[in-house]
Design goal:
With 471 residues, the chain is of the alpha/beta class.
């Protein structure tokens, strides 16, 4: 890939006075940026890192749609065809709502589709994932000044593509806070070593590379100091953490190190591939009191033939045995999962195997996705399931997931569990929070409870939320 791509952009932009110091006129004291974040928790984390980097450079965030801004940064996703369409929807919307702002596009869609973006007359700057950490170097008055003095009818904008080989190193983008007020996210790893036949992630994120534990601990302490009681460790393939170090490490090392931080009460792991949930990790989740007894473990299919076509590295028996071990070692363990409907080659017997396995593992929540063809993957060459049948299976899986989740939640009615209070329900004297095993709970309480962990007796189930009373 060439290190620099020049894009002929045909849009005419008014030179904003806030960008250029004209004779006798000062640059506006504060430039403003608006962020649009699409996709996963990793993207949300990276947006926070860019937000803090730009704030450090004196660029304020503008979340009010009615106010003008100088930059719009769209952090894209490309996991599905729907995500690609959403990227372009937000590009068009941003250009319409902020016609005089500079439009910057970054994220996973950029990695494989920068040429298509470069042809979009609404995009001013393309920044790959590897350059997110230095975004402030490009959004400066001096840089904007130089861009604004190019002929507006034939504006040449440099797309900052990867130089060198950044996919072999972890690109640091540290944060000191998260969107929520009680739970903070810490990205510990990037990239993936798997090659699922339907997935584009390894194509756009590269192979796994890990963040040093010292950096992770420092960030956990910053979040603790900012008032966060819980941290969630996130990444693209969390189970690959530390395997790229000369001295191999694992998630267990992170859990043990962060468990020693006073004032940090909960440690949560986000999504884990089934093959990566090793015995040592299960034991750590059980034995370290601060660890939350919840994992998101993608299933995708409950049929061995389909799993093989997907290039998943387990079969239905392995998945079932794994969940059985987790629940036997941690009786309050909660499972959430991803499941896909309509993968190429999936017939009704394959689908029924998935349905049967869901009833056996009894997840708290199912994230259900229709298969989405991704250019560049092996599955893209195979004949797809008819759309109507795919959507029928999606609806069926959603119904099953809802029913099984309700049964799992109902089983906790009558018990008292610690709840981390996260949200105040305005005007109702009600607060909402999460248990360590990912149950959503509401109860009567005041704003003084925000950020506190309190015992709540669970009394009833309403939809996907348990109601309770302070115990």
């Amino acid at each position: 890939m060439a290190p620099v791509l020049e894009n002929e952009v045909g849009a005419t932009h008014r030179p904003a006075e806030s960008f250029i110091a004209l004779p006798g006129r000062e640059v506006r004291k504060s430039l403003r940026v608006r962020f649009v974040t699409l996709g996963c928790k990793v993207n949300q984390y990276e947006t926070q890192g860019m937000r803090e980097a730009l704030a450090g450079a004196g660029i304020e965030e503008s979340s009010d749609l009615g106010k003008p801004c100088d930059f719009v940064v769209i952090n894209t996703c490309t996991v599905t065809d729907k995500a690609d369409k959403e990227n372009h929807y937000w590009i068009r919307r941003a250009r319409r709502e902020h016609p005089f702002a500079k439009l910057i596009v970054t994220g996973c869609y950029v990695e494989r589709d920068h040429l298509r973006l470069a042809e979009d007359s609404g995009v001013d700057l393309i920044i790959p994932n590897s350059k997110k950490s230095v975004i402030a170097d490009y959004l400066t008055p001096a840089r904007i000044d130089s861009l604004s003095q190019v002929n507006a009818g034939n504006l040449k904008i440099r797309a900052l593509l990867q130089s060198g080989n950044p996919r072999h190193t972890y690109c640091s983008l540290p944060v000191s806070r998260s969107d929520g007020r009680t739970r903070g996210y810490i990205k510990v790893q990037d990239g993936c070593n798997h090659a699922c036949s339907f997935c584009k992630v390894v194509l756009v994120r590269g192979r796994s590379r890990s963040r040093p534990i010292a950096d992770i601990v420092d960030e956990a302490k910053r979040l603790r100091d900012a008032g966060y009681r819980e941290v969630v460790f996130t990444g693209i393939q969390l189970g690959a953490y530390g395997m790229d170090f000369d001295k191999k490490q694992s998630l267990v090392d992170i859990l043990e190190s962060c468990a020693a931080i006073e004032g940090l009460d909960r440690l949560r792991i986000s999504s884990m591939e089934p093959m990566d949930v090793q015995e040592q990790l299960i034991a750590a989740l059980r034995d370290i009191p601060k660890c939350c007894h919840h994992l998101h473990i993608p299933l995708q299919s409950g049929d061995n033939e389909i799993l093989k076509r997907m290039n998943r590295r387990y079969d239905r028996s392995f998945y079932m045995d794994l969940v059985t071990r987790l629940k036997s070692m941690m009786p309050d363990f909660s499972l959430t999962l991803d499941v896909m409907a309509g993968f190429p080659g999936e017939e009704e017997p394959h689908f029924q195997n998935t349905v049967q396995l869901l009833h056996k593992v009894r997840p708290l929540k199912c994230h259900v996705f229709p298969y989405s063809r991704r250019e560049g993957t092996r599955a893209a060459r195979w004949q797809e399931c008819p759309r109507a049948e795919m959507l029928r299976r999606v609806r069926r899986l959603l119904e099953i997931g809802h029913r099984l989740g309700a049964q799992e939640r109902q089983s906790y009615v009558g018990r008292t569990l610690p709840v981390l209070v996260e949200t105040k329900i305005v005007g109702r004297g009600v607060v909402q929070g999460l248990t360590a095993n990912y149950l959503k709970v509401r109860f009567q309480g005041g704003p003084d409870l925000m950020g506190q962990i309190v015992p709540v007796r669970l009394t009833s189930l309403n939809g996907d939320t348990l109601s309770g009373t302070l115990d």
